[in-house]
Amino acid sequence: MAEPTNTPMPPSTPVPASTPRSSSPAPPVPSLSPNAIRSAISPPMPPGRTAPVRPTVLHIGDPIMYNPATYAEFSQMFEVIRPSAAERERIEFKRALKEHRWGDFSAIFRPFWGTGGEMGRWDAELIDLLPDSVKVFASAGAGFDWADTKLLGEKGIIYCNSGLAAAEAVADFGVAMVISTFRHLPWCMTAATFADLSPTGSLARAAFQNCHDRATAVSHNPRGHVLGLIGFGNIGQQIAAKLGNPAFGMRIAYYDIVRKSAEIESSFRTTFHPTLESLLQASDCLVLCAPASTDGKPLITASTLHSMRPGTRFVNVARGSLVDEDALADALESGIISAAALDVHANEPKVNPRLVRMATQLEEGNPGPGRVMLTCHNAGGTVETHIGFEELSMRNIMAVLRGQPPITPVNLEFVRGKS
């Protein structure tokens, strides 16, 4: 599947008792041939009156899990059709669009990252088959590099992501990763859990003592250091609020394509850098929290890495495609980067083997100063995030089809008005 991995929520995932959810969509849905399902039919109209025609929404992926009240309102406003998993496979999905199987639907709704992407990348091959009636595509997730949002916009379709719902979870994870780069947590954790099967346990004791003795000399408090944020949207601003406050006391700087207002800069006590190179040269720790580039080219390359001061720390909670991982490994080996933490990877679910070795580095049989924290695209993965994905996706569609402004659009500059 062409789509990047992003915090899937399988149906079997346990949910805390305090989290409101429904075990099935609300209201119940009867089956519809051949495989799709529709929302419940509206109550009968009084004699002599005709039921208004409701816009149709194509729901791709799993049923709603967390927001039954909103879904009840949603399914009363719209005729919801949910294609089966088999119909969502690319070949069958294309066939269905060509056959006009689901009619002139007005919106596409994808509430989960783990399902609904079976058809792969939304490129010209799919987008050109969409009926002209489609006005909005609302999806879970912050990233949208799996969809050609420019082409969608040129067809008159507003694409809305759900990054706002994931911002707090990603920011929290980013904070943990920043701390890891200052305190060398991968080394400390690996040494403490080093498996030693020898009868005396001497290697495990040596690993523990080695870390205890040596980690201090390379560890620092974050306070007073410059945190450079590449991208200053919702996630970047939340990271700034968490690490720039008195609790951590970091000095915040940022680079973004569009400079934020003086009011925003003042509220976060941040310094704007007009170029990426300027930010790289000023920062003690860099956090990449920008959207994936539309051209698919990395932002962090051998050239940009050499613009950094020796010993800089690096964190990526954005997209793996933004980083030349071999160049990053080179920078770690040379000391330009002293420590790194990556939640996202260029070839997910595969992780760069050089970075894996650096995360679990051995020195003379003992875990040495592993300088890389690697996680599995977990930053946005909380129950609260998925509650927000569902809710925000529905609210975006409800707003657009009511003729109101979308809540979280990403491609308005490309959208042509529809008559």
From TrEMBL:
<dbReference type="Pfam" id="PF02826">
    <property type="entry name" value="2-Hacid_dh_C"/>
</dbReference>
<feature type="domain" description="D-isomer specific 2-hydroxyacid dehydrogenase NAD-binding">
    <location>
        <begin position="212"/>
        <end position="358"/>
    </location>
</feature>
<dbReference type="GO" id="GO:0030267">
    <property type="term" value="F:glyoxylate reductase (NADPH) activity"/>
</dbReference>
<feature type="compositionally biased region" description="Low complexity">
    <location>
        <begin position="15"/>
        <end position="24"/>
    </location>
</feature>
<keyword id="KW-0560">Oxidoreductase</keyword>
<dbReference type="InterPro" id="IPR050223">
    <property type="entry name" value="D-isomer_2-hydroxyacid_DH"/>
</dbReference>
<dbReference type="GO" id="GO:0005829">
    <property type="term" value="C:cytosol"/>
</dbReference>
<dbReference type="InterPro" id="IPR029753">
    <property type="entry name" value="D-isomer_DH_CS"/>
</dbReference>
<feature type="domain" description="D-isomer specific 2-hydroxyacid dehydrogenase catalytic">
    <location>
        <begin position="122"/>
        <end position="411"/>
    </location>
</feature>
<dbReference type="GO" id="GO:0016618">
    <property type="term" value="F:hydroxypyruvate reductase [NAD(P)H] activity"/>
</dbReference>
<dbReference type="Pfam" id="PF00389">
    <property type="entry name" value="2-Hacid_dh"/>
</dbReference>
<dbReference type="InterPro" id="IPR006139">
    <property type="entry name" value="D-isomer_2_OHA_DH_cat_dom"/>
</dbReference>
<dbReference type="InterPro" id="IPR006140">
    <property type="entry name" value="D-isomer_DH_NAD-bd"/>
</dbReference>
<comment type="similarity">
    <text>Belongs to the D-isomer specific 2-hydroxyacid dehydrogenase family.</text>
</comment>
<dbReference type="GO" id="GO:0051287">
    <property type="term" value="F:NAD binding"/>
</dbReference>
<dbReference type="InterPro" id="IPR036291">
    <property type="entry name" value="NAD(P)-bd_dom_sf"/>
</dbReference>
<feature type="region of interest" description="Disordered">
    <location>
        <begin position="1"/>
        <end position="54"/>
    </location>
</feature>
<protein>
    <recommendedName>
        <fullName>D-mandelate dehydrogenase</fullName>
    </recommendedName>
</protein>
